[in-house]
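Sat 14:20. Reprocessing the chain from the morning session after the first attempt stalled halfway. Input below, unchanged.
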Amino acid sequence: MADLALEQIPDFAGPDYDIIIHQGLIAGYQENEQQVVECLIVGWEAGRNTHVAA
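Finished this time. Tokens:
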């Protein structure tokens, strides 16, 4: 199994996440791109930390 502590945060501001961020989260939550990216990073880090601690 891969070491979860070594995983890197995905580039949520990159083109791979454009549809999710622009069409979904920004429109649905009325937040700007930076707020959405920060929220995704916090969520990703929390999930990773939970799995690393287990």
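The mean pLDDT is 83.
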